[in-house]
């Protein structure tokens, strides 16, 4: 995948085949050069639509709740997970807090060709759901926001420095028809005040007040690709009804 790396955390056997380390040049960064901040960016005060994904009790990915019983995340975050393996903390910026939910048996639905998954959870959660964008809501040249509980460092294993508090970073859109981890249509962006990293997989990209992407890949330094959900609204509606 050249410089593109998916963003799943290294913990959890279900993700072992998909997870990877930071690029060599990032790994060589001295500890004194690494800011403890997604990487850089800033902490979030409120995100009622946010969902932290756990696999067999281990934090792995980021997600959003888009309807009372439906979570949106990346396909590579849930691939191979058996019934009962997936759980979520929903609606709190602190990944250890929030309303708890688990995936229903057989409740994971993945897209045929894009790095997208929908998870049907075991009960309805009443919160502010992530509003989904439509074609035209994201454009080349825009500054957009990316959210996640992922790694905040490049100098040690990502699981050791994932953020307890949800973070956000601005990135700059360079393409709205590039490729995600599975070859689906993606929004590509360059680093603004931060860049997504391991554990940010499945998290949202917002353009204005609507979600337009799901985190798929990053080189953890300068570029990232988010599955362009504005191109997959028919599929999301057919599964989750929104």
UniProtKB/TrEMBL annotation:
GO terms for biological process: proteolysis. InterPro entries: Peptidase_S1, Peptidase_S1_PA, Peptidase_S1_PA_chymotrypsin, Peptidase_S1A, Trypsin_dom. SUPFAM superfamilies: Trypsin-like serine proteases. Keywords: Disulfide bond, Hydrolase, Protease, Signal. Residues 38-241 form the Peptidase S1 domain. Residues 1-26 form the signal peptide. Pfam families: Trypsin (PF00089). SMART domains: Tryp_SPc. One of its GO terms (molecular function) is serine-type endopeptidase activity. Belongs to the peptidase S1 family. This is Trypsin-like serine protease. It comes from Saccharopolyspora hirsuta. The lineage of its organism: Bacteria, Bacillati, Actinomycetota, Actinomycetes, Pseudonocardiales.
């Amino acid at each position: 995948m050249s410089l593109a790396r998916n963003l799943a955390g290294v913990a959890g056997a279900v993700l072992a085949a998909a997870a990877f380390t930071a690029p060599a040049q990032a790994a060589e960064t001295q500890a004194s050069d690494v800011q403890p901040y997604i990487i850089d960016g800033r902490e979030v005060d409120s995100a009622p639509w946010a969902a932290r994904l756990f696999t067999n009790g281990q934090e792995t990915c980021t997600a959003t709740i888009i309807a009372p019983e439906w979570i949106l995340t990346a396909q590579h975050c849930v691939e191979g997970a058996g019934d009962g393996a997936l759980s979520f903390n929903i609606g709190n910026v602190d990944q250890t807090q929030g309303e708890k939910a688990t995936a229903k048996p057989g409740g994971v639905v993945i897209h045929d060709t894009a790095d997208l998954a929908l998870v049907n959870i075991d009960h309805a959660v009443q919160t502010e759901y992530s509003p989904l964008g439509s074609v035209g809501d994201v454009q080349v040249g825009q500054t957009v926001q990316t959210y996640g509980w992922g790694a905040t460092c490049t100098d040690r294993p990502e699981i050791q420095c994932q953020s307890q508090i949800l973070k956000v970073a601005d990135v700059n859109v360079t393409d709205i028809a590039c490729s995600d981890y599975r070859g689906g249509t993606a929004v590509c962006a360059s680093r603004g005040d931060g860049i997504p990293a391991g554990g940010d997989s499945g998290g949202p990209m917002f353009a204005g007040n609507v979600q337009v992407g799901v985190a798929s890949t990053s080189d953890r330094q300068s570029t990232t690709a988010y599955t362009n959900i504005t191109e997959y609204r028919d599929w999301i509606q057919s599964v989750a009804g929104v």
